Amino acid sequence: TFGACGAVTGVKNPVLLARHICDQQRVPLSLGRIPPCLLAGEGAHRYAIEHNIATVAPDSLISDKAIRTFKHCMKRFNRHQEHEDKRMKYNTGFTSELQKQMDTVGAVCVDTKGNIAVACSSGGVLLKRSGRIGQAAMQGAGCWADSTVGVVSTGCGEHLMATCLAREAARNIHASDCPTSALHSTFVDGFLGSPLLSNVEEKLAGLLVIQVKGGRGEMLYAHTTDSMCIGYMATNNKKPKSRMSRLPAGSKHGFSLTLEGVSF
After folding, report:
1. Are 20 and 88 found together in one domain?
2. pLDDT of residue 216
3. Where in the sequence is the domain holding 113, given as residue range(s)?
């Protein structure tokens, strides 16, 4: 089952709201009505209140760092707008700066019976339009889980939604004997080389993948962004392990790819 929320303010932990919506997919409604799998805006906020999911004042969720970043970007944006008619002479690199500011958090979990669950949460891209819903709330773009593969994504939401990258990665892994090769081809052919993104210069994405098959598991991660932080832990580990994955020196984000993995 799948559940998601988007463009919602004042919910302390939106992922808990998404989980509740997901769980309610199994509960039939009267008169043959269909339980929603995605709620947004004020409707999502009312749903949270009705189901006792913690809500808070929206301002309490805004950190000092977020305010500073917003003010900085608005200053750069306004300066850019003032020089729009002279953009050939006023190349600030601001577009690239906006695209590199990502804050998605994703998780893939496998229990002792081999069941896979995934979750994805994001504050969205900087200076986004009010009401925008990104890939984190879209099944197949932000996350995917089936009987043996779980995937979560990060990057530019519009690019991830256009290519349904999480779902395509899972499909390619199912069709291949080598999950590493399958993930590599997903990025090279289904993202960097996708005709759906032919008009996009810098293609930014990252995937965290777990495959469980025949009592063994494979955790893979790949990204075209400058970096991607990964943490993982098994039940027999005393503490989690972490790694900051980076593109090779001299590589350009949006054009190059790093892919690594861990077996378990």
Report:
1. no
2. 87
3. 102-263
Query: 128 vs 18, 35, 205, CA distance in Å?
Result: 21, 29, 18
CATH number, position 250: 3.60.20.30
Model confidence, pTM: 0.87
pLDDT of residue 98: 53
Identify the CA nearest to 233 among candidates 214, 210, 215.
Answer: 210
User: In which band, very low, low, confident or very high, does the pLDDT at 248 lie, cut at 50, 70 and 90?
Assistant: very high
Residues serving a catalytic function are 104
Query: Do 73 and 201 reside in the same domain of the chain?
Result: no
- Verify that 23 and 121 share a domain, yes or no: no
So what's the pLDDT on residue 97? 54
Q: How many domains does the chain have?
A: 3
pLDDT digits over 73-117, tens only? 888 888 877 776 555 555 555 555 555 555 789 999 999 899 999
**Are 131 and 173 contained in the same domain?**
yes
Alpha carbon distance 42, 190 (integer Å): 35
Kindly state whether residues 127 and 76 are assigned to the same domain. no
> For residue 74, which of 38, 128, 31 has the smallest C-alpha distance?
128
